[in-house]
Every structure is written in structure tokens, then in C-alpha cells.
Amino acid sequence: ENENETQLSNKIKENKCLRVGGLEVVYKRGFNKKRAVNNVTMNLYEDEIFVLLGHAGSGKTSILHAISGLIKPHAGEILCNGLSLKKDLFHIRQSFGFCPQLNQLWDALSVVDHLQMYANIRGKTLTEEEMDIFLEETHLSHAKDWRAEQLSAGDKRKLGVGIAFVGDPKV
Predict the structure, then answer these.
(1) Which of 126, 72, 70, 79 is nearest to 98 (CA)?
(2) Which residues pair with 66 in a beta bridge?
């Protein structure tokens, strides 16, 4: 076993990963069923970047929605840092960062309000100094008090990415 395999094996043993086993997502519309995800198994590790590639309709979004708890899978098991998504969704969401394909922002909330809310969901509160550093890192200092509806498309995307990272999520 090489060094990389040993490190990954240790992360699994230490529950520093997201494990997906036999994931299936089925959408029902009336009497019709559409299988979007069929028996997907994978491990995602802490401190690594994960990317899903595939053609339109291949199930990428359904997989991400299932592992983030936005939809309930038809079958399979999802463990995040050793916790079951079915039983511990609240705790998992505290350590999970997710940037969906489309921005999910509230027009009336400011940039700071969004970031503080998501930090709070992850069990953290940003000090004014921490917020200023985070705003600089995401290139949103100029817009910190702007409501989401006032942001350019690019700044909305920056905010969406910032939301995924605020509060130092582990996954």
C-alpha cells in the first residue's frame, strides 16, 4: 500500500470523509418513475476537492442534492464523518459546505446577513474582524451591506461560493 492509500485509509478510519454506498435516486411523476442515480458508491475525503463530471441528465445534481440532504434518496447509505445522513442531518449540515448550480439567495438580506446566517447554521458566529477578512477573501468588501437583489451576477456567484465556505465546513 502506497503512502496516499494509507492516508486515505486513515481518513476513513478516523471518519474524516463522506461515504456514499449504493445511492439510488428515483423521481416519481404520477405512475411514471425516472431513475436519476443508480447504485453510486464513492468516498469524498477531507481537505480534497471533489468534482462530478457528466453529460446533462446523468444525475450529478441529484447526487449532490442527496448527499447534502436536499432530497431523500430511494436507497443507499450516506455517512458524513461517521454520522448517518438519515439520523443526523442537523449535525451534518453544520459541517457541510455546498454551492448549488443556481444561486439561492434572499433578495432582502445583505451580503453580511447571508454569511452570518450560514455561519450560524454551522454553529459559528463571525466576529466583525473575521467577517472583514472573509469579505476580503471573497472579494465582496465593497458590497458587504448591499442586499442580494442589488448585487451583480458575478457578486451573487461570489456570495454563493462564500456561503459554501463560511464557518469552516469540513465537507
Answers:
(1) 70
(2) none
Residue with grid cell 443526523, as numbered in its chain: 88
SS (H, E, C) 90-142: HHHHHCCCCCCCCCCCCCCCEHHHHHHHHHHHCCCCCCHHHHHHHHHHCCCHH
Distance CA 18, CA 80 (A): 4
Burial 61-94 (b: 16+ CB within 10 A, else e): bbbbbbbbbebebbebebbbbebebeebbeebbb
Beta bridge partners of 45: 17
Q: What is the pLDDT of residue 159?
A: 96
133: its cell numbers: 477578512
- Chain mean position to CA 153: 21
d(CA 59, CA 64): 9
Percentages (nearest 5) of helix, strand, coil residues in the chain? 40, 20, 40
Q: What is the pLDDT of residues 7-48, one digit of tens each?
A: 667 766 676 788 999 999 999 989 999 999 999 999 988 777
CB within 8 Å of 136: residues ≥ 6 apart: none
Sheet containing strand 32-45, strands side by side: 32-45, 17-29, 75-80, 83-84
Return the C-alpha cell found at 158. Answer: 461570489
Task: Say whether 26 sits in a helix, a strand or coil.
Answer: strand
| pTM attached to this predicted model | 0.74
